[in-house]
């Protein structure tokens, strides 16, 4: 299915999310998945189309330029003029489609992290209580997320290095589980974008950009004291829950989404330390 | 006979819906929702996952995060991590005697914890 067809099949709310790239919803897990899964599919199709269109666009620009040079040498004729005009129109159309695909592009965190996590926990969430989900699906390196820019400095062969730091708190969620447990988590990415410029032996300037990402996951689990015993856990103010906080940190060399297993491991680590009342009394 | 499938990931609970047929592999009674379409609705999701375990997604690979994937992931996660979920939740059979009396008096606060906007 083409990106345009997939986009057309989305509801007005889903199109609005693609446009805003943010959502803050309180809904049952099933409804959230029904809303987000088509968005994730659309994003996957759009990403593929974007790669293809990008290559096509580059080739068309090249073909137009080469055509203009060749025809100017051979002499302009009505046929050559038509060919050049057609190429220019096709290039413009490809450019427009490419820019539209970029506009509807959302972070891969949606389809590689959010959707799998919600799918796995869908039956753990209490169906009577909505899940509170906040997502920021805009690019992690947008201007609004920039926190610091270093002064240019020299490093080895590179005569100019600039480090730009970003902070992207892109996910937070809170829910009540079927066993009465209150679960909430946040995911915040901190990104260092390093732009390095060097002059090669032929005197050309070459610039490359590298990324390092640190993802911080903070998980809060409130297990019902009626059902679970957690050694050393702090009690909530009303004494009904044992509160456990877990933190995980993942370092990567790219902007790719982290493995959802990090979050799953953090939550199950709390359940591993908890003993059910049945076990405790046995 | 009720469905013998277990729901959930962190904790397990019985499905409890009326069963329609038995899994051809393990023989447990299953409701239509817990029979895998990939096996022509002859096996339960757990057995189907054992036959074809879920592989971790490779970079760039698109995965359909559906019911089959979730059961496959659960099965491979339990075996690889050693996580043994507790069965703290009662099945519908256990709670059937409470159904007609209403459950509001047993309810606790249900506000999600964490980052409630002030």
Quick structural gist:
The complex is a heterodimer of chains A (282) and B (118). Chain A has 7 helices and 11 strands.
Structural features, described:
The complex is a heterodimer of chains A (282) and B (118). Chain A has helices at 3-8, 12-20, 29-74, 78-103, 109-121, 261-273, 277-281; strands at residues 22-27, 131-136, 146-149, 153-155, 158-176, 182-199, 205-224, 228-230, 234-235, 241-252, 274-276. With 282 residues, chain A is α+β, with helices and mostly antiparallel strands. In chain A, the strands form two sheets. In chain A, strands 1, 2, 3, 4, 5, 6, 7, 9 and 10 form a nine-stranded antiparallel beta sheet that branches. In chain A, 29% of the residues are buried. Chain B has 118 residues and is of the alpha+beta class. Chain B contains three helices and four strands, in the order ββββααα. Chain B has helices at residues 45-51, 67-81, 92-99, and strands at residues 6-7, 13-14, 21-22, 29-30. Chain B is globular and about 40 Å long. Chain A binds chain B through residues 26, 37, 40, 44, 111-112, 115-116, 119-124, 126, 128-132, 134, 172-186, 220, 222, 224, 227-228, 240, 256, 259, 261, 264-265, 267-268, 271-272, 274, 276, 279, and chain B through 7-11, 13, 56-57, 59, 62-63, 65-66, 69-70, 73-74, 77, 81, 83, 85-86, 88-89, 108, 110-116.
Main beta-sheet strand count, sense and barrel state of chain A: 9 strands, antiparallel
Oligomer: heterodimer
The amount of helix of chain B comes to 25-40%
The N- and C-terminal alpha carbons of chain A lie at a distance of 57 Å
Largest interface, C-beta closer than 8 angstroms, per-chain residues: A-B, 54 and 32 residues
List keywords for this structure.
heterodimer; A: 282 residues; alpha+beta; nine-stranded antiparallel beta sheet; two-stranded antiparallel sheet; 7 helices; 42% helix; 34% strand; elongated; B: 118 residues; 3 helices
């Amino acid at each position: 299915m083409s990106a345009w067809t997939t986009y057309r099949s989305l509801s007005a709310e889903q199109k609005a999310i693609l446009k805003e790239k943010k959502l803050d919803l309180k809904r049952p897990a099933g409804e959230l998945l029904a809303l987000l899964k088509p968005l994730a599919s659309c994003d996957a199709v759009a990403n593929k189309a974007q790669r293809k269109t990008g290559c096509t666009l580059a080739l068309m620009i090249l073909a137009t330029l080469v055509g203009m040079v060749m025809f100017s040498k051979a002499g302009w004729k009505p046929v050559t003029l038509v060919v050049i005009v057609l190429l220019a129109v096709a290039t413009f159309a490809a450019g427009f489609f490419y820019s539209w695909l970029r506009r509807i592009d959302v972070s891969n965190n949606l389809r590689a992290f959010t959707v799998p996590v919600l799918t796995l926990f869908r039956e753990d969430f209490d169906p009577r209580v909505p899940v509170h989900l906040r997502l920021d699906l805009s690019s992690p390196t947008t201007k609004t997320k920039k926190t610091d820019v270093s002064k240019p400095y020299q490093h080895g062969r590179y005569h100019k290095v600039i480090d730009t730091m970003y902070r992207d708190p892109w996910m937070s969620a809170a829910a009540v589980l079927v066993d009465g447990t209150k679960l909430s988590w946040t995911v915040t990415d901190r990104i260092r974008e390093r732009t390095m410029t060097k002059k090669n032996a032929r005197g050309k300037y070459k610039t490359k950009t590298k990324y390092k990402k640190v993802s911080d996951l903070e998980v809060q689990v409130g297990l019902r004291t009626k059902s679970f015993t957690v050694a050393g856990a702090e009690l909530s103010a009303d004494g009904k829950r044992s509160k456990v906080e877990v933190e995980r940190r993942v370092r990567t060399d790219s902007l790719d989404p982290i493995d959802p297993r990090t979050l799953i491991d953090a939550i199950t680590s709390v359940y591993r330390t908890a003993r059910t009342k049945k076990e405790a009394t046995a | 006979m009720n469905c013998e499938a277990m729901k959930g990931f962190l904790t397990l609970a019985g499905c409890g819906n009326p069963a329609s047929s038995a899994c051809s592999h393990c023989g447990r009674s299953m409701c239509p929702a817990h029979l895998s379409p990939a096996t022509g609705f002859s096996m339960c999701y757990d057995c189907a996952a054992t036959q074809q375990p879920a592989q971790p997604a490779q970079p760039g690979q698109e995965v359909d995060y559906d019911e089959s994937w979730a059961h496959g992931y659960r099965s491979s996660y339990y075996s690889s991590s050693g996580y043994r979920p507790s069965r703290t939740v009662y099945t519908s059979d256990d709670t059937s005697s409470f159904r007609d009396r209403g459950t509001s008096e047993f309810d606790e606060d249900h506000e999600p914890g964490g980052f409630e906007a002030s």
